[in-house]
Amino acid sequence: MSGGQGKKNRPDSYYRRIYALFLPIFRIVARVAYGVRVKRPRHYDEPVLILANHTSDMDFLVVASYISNHMYFVASEHVTAMGLFGKGFEAWFNPVKVTKGSSKTGGVMDIMRRLRRGNCVLLFCEGRLSHDGKSTYIAPATAKLAKSVKCKVVTFRSSGGFFIEPRWQTYLNRGKLFSSGIVHEYTRDEIAEMSNEEMLVHIREDLYVDAYAEQRERMQPFKFRHGIRDITRYYDVCPRCGGIDTLKAEGMSVRCTCGYEMTCDDYGFFHASPQLISTAQDWEAVQLDAYRREFEAGHFFREEGVTLYRVGEHFRREVLVTAELISSAEGISIGEYEFRFHDMSSPELLNGGRQVEFSALGEDYMLEKDGACLNKYLELRRWSLGGEEQ
What we know:
By secondary structure, the chain is α+β, with helices and mostly antiparallel strands. The chain folds into three domains: 3-218, 3-Layer(aba) Sandwich (Glycerol-3-phosphate (1)-acyltransferase), CATH 3.40.1130; 225-296, no CATH class; 302-384, PH-domain like. It has helices spanning 3-8, 12-34, 59-66, 77-80, 83-93, 105-116, 140-148, 161-164, 188-193, 196-207, 211-218, 280-296, 375-384, and strands at 48-52, 71-76, 96-98, 120-124, 152-159, 179-186, 225-228, 247-250, 253-256, 261-264, 270-271, 302-311, 317-327, 331-334, 337-340, 348-350, 355-360, 363-368. β8 and β9 form a beta hairpin. The longest helix has 23 residues, at 12-34. The chain is globular, with a radius of gyration of 21 Å. Residues 1-6 have low confidence and may be disordered.
């Protein structure tokens, strides 16, 4: 028997024992990183599907502080591919693995199998971090899953994590969550009485956050570890001149080649003269308008030095080509490889915006370039397909 096969056959009790050893560490880290202290964690005597919102990469530590049960985490395969950390995470916690930007059918079946064996499973149903502070899209399939599992469903919400780990970062800033905790516990009978559409409304309402709206009321400071030096991985449009890829970030400031400069304060708000935007949400609106004007005028983006990988089993990456990425209203091409938007799954941004993962015609792929704003190609696909939600 191979080592991999042996791992698959390990009983749930094996992972429960390991989880119990790590749980005190999870709670210490959650206290230090997020300011979370829970005197009496909740314990369930039945299998539970936990649906949580997603504000930072370490959200699972916060949930573990509030719920004492052993739980299996649903995680992207790129997490288990992160060197020694990924190998340890997979070996010790046996997560439900899904590949971002591809079908989640296998992951759904795995979730259901583990729940039927009497376990708890934690799913971050947005699937991605917000880059403007508002909750991202929750697909109707989440409600369908909640209806299908035939067990209690618990919703869990954290707020304030956007300022601790904006999506363009790969590290944590210093600060405390605004709030966190269980929102609602839905019994099997409650769920059975609801339609899929009603269940989806409840999940979306339970998990929705708007970091800037809450920050305006709280005005809670955060210590930005490296300033906003990486913000141009997501925001590359100047609010004043509309220039694209004309920005440079350093410290807590962003400056355009036109001379316009913005600074970010410890509360996450932007300041400049003239004051054109104050939040990432304002900036995103400006950026999307600029992109759409370019698209509608028939102007599409190009990016030199992009690497294309084929992603195989266990997230093994095979370099296919490093070349110029060229886009059009129909799709993207790089070297000899062409991908039509209609043939692609919804792309996912990874690693602070450095990578884009997607599937096309039954294969998984990744685009990678450090220092580029690859976000614009996701927006191009969305525009091309008539605003399809990602």
